[in-house]
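Input record (one chain):
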Amino acid sequence: MQHRKRAWAVAVAATTAAMSVATLVAGCGSDAKGDNEVRNIIYLLGDGMGRTHVTAARQRFEGAGGHLQLEQLPYVGAVATYAVEPNSAKPSLVTDSASAATAWSSGVKTYNAAIGVDAYGKTVPTLMEQAKAAGFATGNVSTAEITDATPAAMFSHALLRGCQGPTFSESTCLPKKSDGSYEAQPADKTLVTPIAEQIARNGTADVIFGGGLARFEPDDQKVMQDKGYEVLGSMGDPALKAQTPESQKVPTAADLKSVTAQKVIGLFNRGNMTVTNARNALPDSAPQKQEPTLADMTTKAIDLLSARKGGKGFLLQVEGALIDKRSHANDAAQTLDEVKAFDDAVKAAVDFAEKDGHTMVVVTADHECAGFSIIEKNTFTNAEAVAPPTNVDATNPANNSKPARDGKDNVKDPVRSPGLVNGAGQQDPRNFAPATFRTPDDPAEVKDGSPEASLWLTYLSGNHTGADVQIYAYGPGAQVFAASQDNTSLYTKMHKALLP
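The corresponding structure, as predicted from the sequence alone:
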């Protein structure tokens, strides 16, 4: 592997040239806006959050008759999420976060793993780049590494989402040919420049909060400080050629609370931020306990962006990333807690929008993850398994594979399950019993993990599905999202609202 710290004049010029001049000119219109016009957009993503994730979280935390904050938004629609094959317009029915994020960031379909490029690997401008060029303040917040696919697609361009940094390697930055060899490096070297390096140098986002400190190096910090950013914590010792865990300092929630700079980056974990469920269980002395919540980061980002003097308004993207990551792990307890943490961030956005009167709030997901399902009490899935697999999460009562199956009726139905869906039975980790949870509607004595708990949950797989996702919206002009729409149209609608 090798470091790729390049002169950025060429890269920035290439990206600027790729933008539509007409679009940018249109975005630079009059500052004067009417009472019902949009001055700010807060776009919130529950990564992997399907309809069942929302329903299950509502039932878990609010009861069957309750509502999450996002469900109280007045306009509701649906979003199709499919991607396309590389160098093609042929649909790929199940998207990943990178192609989905490129769709709403740039309005184009692309291949899975692509960031800010079309299906043919050509750079496409992003909404955040266009908003920045038009004089808006910009922000990007995530509980994942800030270089991960969803946040990255708003302010970087890469042939592969794995090209995050701090170093370049062919395996993470270059696609493979059919013969297994790597594609030649593109003429636009930005596309194989680590995403962390791009973020540190392009200035696209004014406010950046999330995880991923280990992706950055001391010279990234110097560049950002030279550009006027306050860097919370430290990206490493400038005397070193590369950062080490010991040389970096992770900032805390207290650092976030005290910051007043209008340009700031705070990366609160060297990797992804800590799962809510796990963080809450830690002692106060644990470093991860000092991480801010997604709602904390959202509130601070809004405060900083809205306080900018002389600006037109702002564009802020907020991602609840760990919904997806815990769905991949088939961890229902942690998944539900992440949906609730995301919903708290939605509340922070809506609270501001209600007072402001000129803010559009859009809440959706990039895709559904894992085929999350609410099933009937005393039932289970994958019936051909003789027994559930060995419990690998015994300390989590909400995920302890109880109530156990009795095994006597676990026979395969050849009509409903004709294929080799479940492999080797109990030895196959794809076979599992439900996770059960008490809800506010249950008697006080009912516990998580018990047969009496009313909410029974299971998963279809450990990967994404091709299901449509819902979209919720609030504020001036938000009624345009009350429709069945493609994910590329989200870009078009937000662009028209903010940059008419």
